[in-house]
Each structure stands twice: as structure tokens, then as C-alpha cells.
Amino acid sequence: MRFRSLLAIAATALLTGPATHLLIGQDRYNSADYQRVTHALTCQCGGCNAIVGECAMDRCPSSEPIREEVARRLQAGEAPEDILSMFAERYGLVILAAPPASGFHLSAWILPGVFLLGGAAVVFTVLRRRRSAAAAVPAAGGAAVPAVDASPEVLARIERDVDQIR
Amino acid sequence: MHHLGNFSLMAVVVMCAYAVVASLLGVRKQSSQLVNSARRALIAAAGFSALSVAALLALFLADDFRFEYVASYSASALPWYYKVSALWAGNDGSLLFWTFLMLVFAAACAISRRRDELMPHVVATLGGVILFFAYMNYWVCNPFGQLAEITAAGPIPFTPGDGNGLNPLLQHPIMAIHPPILYTGYVGFVIPFAFCVAALWTRRLDAAWIQNTRRWTLIAWFFLGSGILLGGRWAYVELGWGGYWGWDPVENAALMPWLTGTAFLHSVMIQERKGMLKIWNAGLVIVTYLLCVFGTFLTRSGIVSSVHAFASSEFAWRFLVFIIFAAILSAALLITRIKDLRTENELEAVVSRESGFLFNNLLLLAACFAVFWGTLFPVLSEAVQGEQISVGAPFFNRVNVPLGLALLLMTGVGPLLAWRRSSVDSLKRNFTVPLLSGVAAGLLLVALGMRHPYAILCFAMSAFVVVTIGTEFHRGVRARRAHRGGTYATALVDLVQRNTRRYGGYIVHFGIVLLFIGFAGNAFNKDVIADLNRGESTAIGPWKVTLQDLPSGETPVYNWLGAQVLLSKHDEPVGIFQPRRQLDKATGQATSEVRRHATFQEDIYLVFSGVTEDGRATVHVYRNPLVRWVWLGAFVMFLGTVLTLLPNRSPVRRTATAAPDGTALEAV
Predict the structure, then answer these.
(1) Which domain holds residue B546?
(2) Computed from CA positions of residues B231, B233, B236, B239, in that sequence, does the dihedral angle turn out positive or negative?
(3) ipTM of the complex in this document
(4) pLDDT for B413-444, tens place per residue?
């Protein structure tokens, strides 16, 4: 009985040792949720500003325990968002790798879009105004631009030829 | 030696001050002698600056630890080449080197463009800018300061037995060339800036200043881009976090002027061809240079937290004053010259090459603004809310990836649009094949199981752009062969030689496509961390990493411990690798020496993170697809830029415009 128990323990250890190791490798540290959470947090060691999931410092006093805790909490079934909120509460917003999209911090997300849309509006306005100005030149200046006396077919051919040598 | 260094620094200050005063007096009194002496003073300042750099180098090579800067960044056991690169390891020395490089550009410009009528004002501007940097170097962060021990009897000179050593992360061959290349890019933009200020100052606002500074701008842009990519390469092979771009504030600082510089290199073509966008181009040059100075302010002021930064509060306010002063002066010049900057032509159609350039500029500027905003937002948030926040990769990726993809699309769209106006027929003719290629590539990837939307878009757009570029080359070759005959190859060479700027530009675009293919690979990165005993393995996809041994050793500079692993794919051995942990003896800092198995398909990136308490080796294995395409893209961009810098074999066309002095300008 004693021998069989020992054998069972030894066999279990032998077989599950590497499997547990792989389990640690695959599940504990490498699940999509683990990657997501550790890539949404920044190292708090005080200098590197690295993403926790990428911090390469050996036994980092900040990233290492955070990674361990994230893995532990995920294994305990906590939702990624709850884990992030818990860390934000503990360390402040500084631990989040991106500002929250609420309150004053919403402006961080919105302003680049406002810049792009505002710029696009300016470009369109300039294009329209300049086009109208260009169109108005012949009218104002009489025969400032001589009319081309050519059929649409000839114009198309010229355009094609110009394209060829362009 | 330090007396020579200090004297030379003072001489740089005096020469630059003289250059400003003499050139302005020379213009006022119409004295060519004074103007020439100002120009020569700038050249002499470059000589003195070289002497001060040589003096500091000599102190490093002689292990003269009486000097604080040498003792802080060097150690006697350091190889000579890292003693040389220690010159720019800290704030004071890097600023000295920065000033020297700026003076090399200024002297080269003063010699090569001595007959340029803008030269007196260019010299005054260059002298003024460099004077500020030389002042900072002499009075605020002088690298020739000696160590002293404070005793009751007062300070007495102190010489430590050895130096603190160079940060081990900087002990890498790339770090010996990355900072000089990056600095060359930063400082090089001072030349177009000086010409722009001079043109505004003198109201000589035709395209001459732009044509005369095109190569300078391109060289600065090329060095800045190369410096950024080399920095990425260094981060990848040295820092051990598996990536090459972390959106660190110092990386962002270099990216911003590169983006605006890229915008300028495109929009300048509209001014050269059509006399339009003069205000815009002048504004872009000014903003680009101010962003270069702002970049060095960010790096050195300590206002943002960065792993690269040299924090120095003494530096911050002076630099800020300089930037504000330069911005106000430039803006005032621009505003007072607006009437002289009127456009000579009007846009004729929304769908045209000109509007394509405008949208390309808008996207580049929006990307620059997003980077600027994200970099400074933590400072703003702390000032407004009193709360520290972080803005890192998740923010920058989310905001900039769509902008980057839109820019990639414009890389293909732009060349297909005709100048002045694109008719529906020509749009159909030009777009059909590239567009179908892009759509086909996208659909094929979806059919093969790819589901990442940005990656699919990126590959589809890459196909679109590559076909566009190929079509442009093919059309050109066909036209040349129709005109002059010959084989396809000779016609291709002839075509490129006749318009190096255009076809070099297309090759740069091709390099950009390769870069984006590499970037898209990031979407599929995977990694695994495992604590392994000898003989144990961990797997990532078809790859298996088996720990064989834990060798260790010592060099004069560091102790090391390695994890010897066997890498195999589908159980077929690929090779034995030995990622290491190194402990620098001088600084006590531990670093990772990563090992990679790199192919065009993917990199297997191996990091040995250390040994656990129970003696197992912690190995971090990254599977990074397509990273090699980034380095290939960088190389292709390098080739393309070199090509655009070469003169055409014969002029493409002659413009009918004349310079203010009556001489005809030749557009090449």
C-alpha cells in the first residue's frame, strides 16, 4: 500500500511536473487576458515607464509582483476590467498605460481627432475657395486663358499622351 | 587639456556673437568685408568647437577622472571605443557634441553657399542659434568641471580611483553611431530654418531658398530617420523587451520633427512647381526646427519621465525661454510677410496631385500633433488635475495606427493623381489595377483566415502601393523605350538617372511599405515565459526551446550568466543559443543580452531573465513575425534617399522663372 502510494505520487509528479510547468507557461502567464491586463499597466519602479508586460528588468520590484498578482487574480476568476480598476485604485491613474476616456482625460483621446477634422475642414475650404478663384479668373480677365478649340476626343488623347510621358 | 577645451568653448561663444553682429552691420553698411568676416567667424567657430570636442575626448581616453563628466560616464576598464562614445552619454558632453555638429553644418553651408545673397542673414540666424547652445555649454552645463571635496578649509580637488563607468545598455556598437546620426538629423534642420528666416527677413520669398536648401533638408531628414530606426534596432537587440518602439517621450521627440520634415519634403514640390503654399512651407520649416529644439528640451529638461532622458532643471527654463523667443520671432516674421507670401497660382481641382499633397500634409501633421499631445498630456494633466497619469503605447497605437494606415494609402494614391486635375478617365485608368490588387490581397488574407482588421488593411494597402510604384516605373520605362529604344534594363537605368528625385522618392515609398509590413507583424506577436530546469522545454507555436545548461563567465567589464538553449522547430533542431544576463562591474547594473533566430517570416527572440530561488532559469521567448521587414524597409529607404540626393544626369526641364538677381533658375 505504502509502495503503491509512493509510486502514484512519483508518477503524478513525473508526469504532471513538466505539464504543470507548461500549464504555468501557457495559462498562467500567457493567456489573452493576462497579456491584455499586463499591457495596460505601467511599471511603477520609478524610472523606466515600461509596460508591465514588457518590463525586462530582472526581478523588477514593481513589474514582477504586479505580473504575479495579475496571473493570480485571473486564475481566481476575476475579470480583467476589475483587476485594472483595482490597480488604478491602489496606485492611482498613473499605473494605467493609457488615460481613461472620461472627464478631463477624455480630451487626450478627442483632441487628435478634432485636429484632424478641423484640418480637413480647412483643407476643403481652401480647396473650394481657390478653385472658385481659379474659375473666376477667365471671367474677370476676359480672354486671360485662351479657349482650346479641340474636340473631347482630341483632349482625351492629349491627356493620355501627357499621362504617358508624365 | 581642459584649459584648451574651455578656451575653445569661449572662443565659440565669441565667434558666434561676432558672426551675428558683423553680418547685420555688414548688411546695414553694405560692407562685403564685414559680411565675409562674419561668415569666416562661423567657420572658425566650427574649428574651435572641434577643438573643445577633441579636448574632452582626450580626457576620456586618458582616464582623467579629475573631471566630473569623465568620472561619471567612463571607467578605466572600458574599451577605447566606448570611451569615445561616452562623450555623448550625458547631458553636458552630448550638448557639446550637438553644438559641434551644428557648427559643422553651419560651416559647410557658409563655405558652399558663400555667394548666396541670403548668406548674411543666414549667418546671423545660424550665429544667433548656435550662440545660445554655446552659452549653455560654457556657463550652464560645462563638461570640463572638476570634482572637488568640500572640507572645512574649502573645496579641494578630488580624483576618484576609477570612474562610475558607462551605462551597460549604452555599451553596444549601435550606441556608438546612433546618437551622432540622430543628432546630425536634429541639427541639420537648422540650415533650412536659417534660410527660411533669412528669406522672410529679406522678403526674397520666391522658390530659390527652398531649392537651395532642398538637399540640406533631405540630408537632415535622412539622418533623423536613420537615427530613429537605429534607435529602434538598438532597443530591439539590447533592451530585451521584445520590441523596437515603445512610444517613449524621447523617441517621440525625434519622431515629431521627422513627421513635419516629411510633410515639408512633399509640400515643397507644390511651391517649386506652382508657386503655391509659401506660408505653409515656411511654417513647416519653422515648426520642424522648433520641434528639433523642443526634442532636446524634452530629453534634457526632465519635464517628462523617460528612460533616455538626462534630467536637468537648470537647463529647463533657459531652453524654454529660447524656444518661446524663437517661436515668437519666427511667427512675427511670418505674419509680417504674409502679403509677400501670396500664392502665384490657384488650385484647379479637388482631385489633383496638389490636393493629394495637402491631405498627405494634413495626415502627417495630425500624427505629429497626436504624438505631441500624448507626450505632453501627463504634464498637462498634472498641472490641471494635480494627478499623475501615464500615456503609453496603448494610447499612441490606438490614435496613430489609423493615421499611419491613411498615410500608407496616400503613398499609393498621390503618384496616381495628375498635377492640376485628374479626369475621371485617368482616375479609372490609373487606379483600376492597383485597387484591384489591394482588394484581392485583402480578400485572400481573409480567406486564409486572417481576422485582424488593421493588419488586413495594412497588407491590402501595401499591395496597392507596391503595384502603384511598379506601374509608375513600368510606364516610365515604356515611354523611354518608345522614345529612345534599348532594353528594358537600360531604359530603367536611364529613366532613374534622368529624374533621381522622383524615382528615388518612389524607392523611399517602397521602403515605407516594407516598414509597414513589418509593423503589421506586431499584431501577431506572441510570447511565453517559462521557468526551466535543465532538459525541460517550453513551446510557442511550432517552436520548442529546451534548456541545456547554465554557463557563466567573466570579462574585465562584466560577469555573465547564460542560459544555453536548444531551439527546434517541429522537433527539428535549428540551433543552440545562449541569451545572457550580464552584471556590469563598474555600475552594478544587470542587463540582458538577447539572442535571436531571425528570418523574413519571424524572429524567435530569446531573453534569459534570471534564475529563480529554486535554481530554474526564467526564459522569455518571443515570437515576433515580420520584424526583418522593418530593417529591410529601413535599408531600402536609405537607398532611395541616397538616390534622390544624386544629381540628374541631364535636367528634366528648365523653368522660365528667374531669380531676383536676374539669373535663370534651373529646376532639377
Answers:
(1) 524-627
(2) negative
(3) 0.85
(4) 988 888 877 778 888 888 889 999 999 999 99
